[in-house]
Amino acid sequence: MSQPGRSQEPERRLGAPAPRARGGWPPSGSRVSATGGGRTRRAPAQGATVRRHRVRSWPAAGRDRAAIQRAELAALEQGVRFRTIFLILVGTILAIAATNVLTGAVGLLRETSSRPLTAAEQARYISDDIAKRWYTWTADLVFPVELQYIGLGRVQQYARRVGLAPEVACAAGTDAQVGSVLTRHGCRTLLRATYVDQTSTFVFTVGIAVLADEERRLAASAQLAVDDRVGVRPVAFPGTATELFGAAQRQHNAWVGVGPYIVFSTAGYTDGRTRQAIAPEEILHSELWPAAQAVAGRIARALGDEPSAVPQCTQGNVC
Question: How far from 48 is each of 43, 73, 167, 204, 247, CA to CA, in Å?
């Protein structure tokens, strides 16, 4: 039953006002589901025309896509340019390498092909052969066991090798005045051997100073003092006829140059006589000094002789 004085319409419960979304959505008058937050659409009125709104693209999005496309195109063009430059560089390097290889092959072919030696090349071959004899030859070739020479009265004589001295520095095996000159001009080493004549009356020590080349030898020779009292130091061998041969027993000293070598010689008597003990006229007419010169000269000539066979071509004698 209805009560007097009250409206007959059903009571409406007042609920909390529908929440408004940011930006004014949902619009005023729309209903929100009781669960809260869900959106409901009004049913269109009967006979009303439903409008469908077309979504319009934003101009800013189009501009962004165009900018991206332009950036991609620029990156592509830059990559193409880099690739072209890289290919050009690689091609240039390959061309240079191929040219060098071809040039080297042609040069090697020319160098290895046999051709006649020039006069300068033959002279260099001879000088190189002479310069290395002091270590490529055996000791018996450098200092023969027996040396023949012509004595006074054109008599055939010979000298016999008594011993070989150990290899020493040039300054250690010569007098100070000589050693300083040799050292200053780069003397490499000094080889020495001692001989006696066939009667064991005379004793000779022969020394070979080895310099770098003939030019160095000529420069050193020009500064050697002209003094027959200094030169190579004698080497004596105990238990032989040479054991009394020392610096005081040297009667005469000399040297001769050949190639890169200076061949020194010093001579004395096996009985130990000193230089002061011999009268000057006896030294002048003695056979001692000619024998020493002959022995040293034979050794020097062997070192400086041209090779018996000089190649005519770069590969032997067939060009």
Answer: 10, 52, 130, 146, 146
